[in-house]
Specification:
Helix content: 25-40%
CATH superfamily: Vaccinia Virus protein VP39
Strand order of the largest sheet: 3-2-1-4-5-7-6
Number of domains: 1
Order of helices and strands: HEHEHEEHEHHEHE
Largest sheet: 7 strands, mixed
Distance between the termini: 32 Å
Oligomer: single chain
Structural class: alpha/beta
CATH class: Alpha Beta
Strand content: 15-25%
Number of helices: 7
Number of strands: 7
CATH architecture: 3-Layer(aba) Sandwich
Radius of gyration: 16 Å
């Protein structure tokens, strides 16, 4: 991804890539959410350093999610696919194909609360591994928040992660609209945010 952009921009304007990874995107990736704000969509279209990567370990679910994204992207006239910076990658949340400290944001959406999720602790450790210092990890849970909160205990105890106040909209992906939609529909649903901090040596 990076080399192509560097050649286009030249050394003077080279900008660090801002990579957003969704773990367990399934058939309904976050990038396809109707709650995505116009501001978010415009930023993703205009800023060539931003990439959104949806990952799932099921090829069938990933393919369905990709097809829905393409269909809705055209119907809603978002034109995100034309950017070439929205990718769907077949990958296990337990072994992501990304370097340590290389991702700006990680999203778990209706994953940690899924009673069928395999080894959620390993997925959270993997998210912590790929996240950059200063990067943001987000847990969006709409259906089974009590399970998600139990699994999230690891994140609350991880030395390299700090829980952010609920009101703090940190990172590129602003879930304000999702917050409001969940409050209307499911009072127990929540969004939790964590920032990766640098540990003292």
């Amino acid at each position: 991804m990076g080399k192509g952009l560097e050649r286009q921009r030249g050394p003077e304007s080279k900008k660090e890539e801002y990579i957003i990874v969704e773990i367990g995107s399934g058939a309904s990736p976050y990038i396809d959410s109707p709650e995505l704000s116009k501001e978010y969509i415009d930023k993703l279209k205009e800023d060539e350093s931003i990439y959104f990567i949806a990952t799932d370990d099921s090829g069938g679910s990933l393919g369905t999610g990709r097809n829905w994204f393409r269909l809705n992207d055209e119907m809603r006239e978002r034109e995100l696919e034309k950017t070439g910076r929205v990718h769907f990658v077949l990958a296990s949340g337990h072994q992501l194909p990304f370097r340590d400290n290389s991702v700006a944001e990680v999203i778990f959406r209706n994953v940690l609360g899924d009673p069928e999720a395999r080894k959620p602790l390993e997925m959270m450790r993997e998210a912590e591994r790929v996240l950059k210092v200063g990067g943001v990890l987000k847990v969006i849970e709409m259906y089974t928040p009590h399970i998600a909160r139990q699994n999230m205990d690891f994140l609350s105890r991880a030395r390299s992660l700090e829980r952010l106040p609920d009101a703090e909209k940190t990172g590129f992906v602003d879930e304000t609209a999702i917050d409001e939609a969940m409050t209307r529909e499911r009072a127990a649903a929540f969004v939790a945010r964590f920032r990766k901090k640098e540990l003292a040596s």
